[in-house]
Amino acid sequence: MLHFRNYQYAGNLFEGDFLLVRDFLLKLNNPTYSFGWWDHQMTRPSFRAEYLNRFGLWLRGERLVGIACVDENLGNGILSYTDSSLLDEMVSYAKEHLHDEGKMFLLIPDMDKAYQEAAARAGFYPTQERDTESVIQIDAEKLRYTLPEGYRIVSMADHYDAAKIERITRRGFTENRAERAPSLIELDAIDRWLCRPYIDLDLHVAVIAPDETFAAFCGMWRTAESTMAFVEPVVTDPDYQMKGLGRTVVYEALSRCGKLGATSAVVFSTKQFYFSIGFRPNTTSTWWKLKNG
């Protein structure tokens, strides 16, 4: 019998309904809403655990058949389902419970016409904002690389350093490139992201420069239940760009995943960098906006 309930969060992010949803996404094997996206978003910077109890779950018996949740922030809705007859109810639920002060977007795959029509009936319309995931088939013969003299590659399993990870992600993704010691809050955020269940630190790799700083870094998520890996993030320190180090860390991480049974990897990006190293655009989704929201 079909029934609805809210996601139940009791203080541990990685138990209970986290595993129920993770297993559901693993079985769907949809690169748009992958297990890696679900794993990763729990420790993304602006995600709040209090959002979890707003999520909606639809079950037949004990089997999950649909989830309404957010992509990091309230107002950015994600619906994943196996029964299209639930769509009107799911869209209505997201509209009522997952909005941000009345503002609401839904990320809808362009090929999912049933979802599009349900959103339109509820007052959503498509915008120009789109997300495209890119996929690479893992082929060991195509993952070869060479490192410049004096550089070496390591995994976080044997060379974990939260301060160096904070430094390269800050310098690579922001304009804040000052040399400074990271705060305890920043270090704690890195630890919460990487030192937790369902992380294989041997798949998170960095290139170390001759001065012992991290010159490039790649995060990779993989699980034995899937042949698809998930890439997030890839960053090169601005001082070390144009040396092929970004490609190197991605290829090394992909190679490690391939040896464990992964056959493909997905990244939520269409940057030319990924296309230049072998990724190809896969499917595109459009952000639909709630009218008057």
Task: Describe the model.
The chain has 293 residues and is an alpha+beta fold. 29% of the residues lie in helices and 28% in strands. It has nine helices and twelve strands. It has a twelve-stranded mixed sheet with strand order 1-2-3-4-5-12-6-11-10-9-8-7, sandwiched between helices. It is globular and about 60 Å long. The model has no long low-confidence stretch (mean pLDDT 96).
CATH topology of the largest domain: Aminopeptidase
Q: CA-to-CA gap between the ends?
A: 34 Å
Q: Reading side by side through the largest sheet, how are the strands ordered?
A: 1-2-3-4-5-12-6-11-10-9-8-7
Q: Helical residue percent?
A: 25-40%
Let me know the number of strands.
Answer: 12
Order of helices and strands: EHHEEEHEHEEHHHEEEHEHE
The total domain count is 2
CATH architecture of the largest domain: 3-Layer(aba) Sandwich
Binned strand content: 25-35%
Number of helices, where a helix is a run of at least 4 consecutive DSSP H or I residues:
9
The chain-level structural class is alpha+beta
Cα Rg? 20 Å
What is the H level of CATH, i.e. the homologous superfamily of the largest domain? Gcn5-related N-acetyltransferase (GNAT)
**Which stretches of 5+ consecutive residues score pLDDT under 50?**
none
The largest sheet, given as strand count, sense and whether it forms a barrel, is:
12 strands, mixed
